[in-house]
Amino acid sequence: MRSKNQPHGKLYKVLSSTEDVPTNMRLPKEARGHMVLVLGWASQWNWVRVATITSSAASTMQYMDYLPIYPSKKNQHNGVQLKLCNDWEGWTYMEKKSYVKMDEVYEIPLKDLKPARMNGRQYELQSKSWEKILNFIQKRKSGAVQDCTN
Q: Model-level pTM?
């Protein structure tokens, strides 16, 4: 279940500044300044595991690794469509088609992220959508889906 006090299931923007970016941060340069979804805590203190959010889909992409965010249509391979809320009870949607890229997961210090907001409130997944993410990750770990999240 989501928690108001935890970053899990919330959307952030990666700071675009390259100053003070640790050399061991594995997030690609192209992702700086873009949105990410926090999946959980990393092994380093106050670092989080993130998946990038994209609005474009490469022709070579593995469609099962791209989880659409409403209003994007459901993923035809796994039936997933994520939905957002921007407060504890309300719901919202992205202005353009967007996808959570689950093919690679990165670790980044939480201090290098700022909340992605709309109308002053942070975007986050609805509880059911957060459960879909956790289920997707669990299937990968069990081998039911190719494991790219470790």
A: 0.82
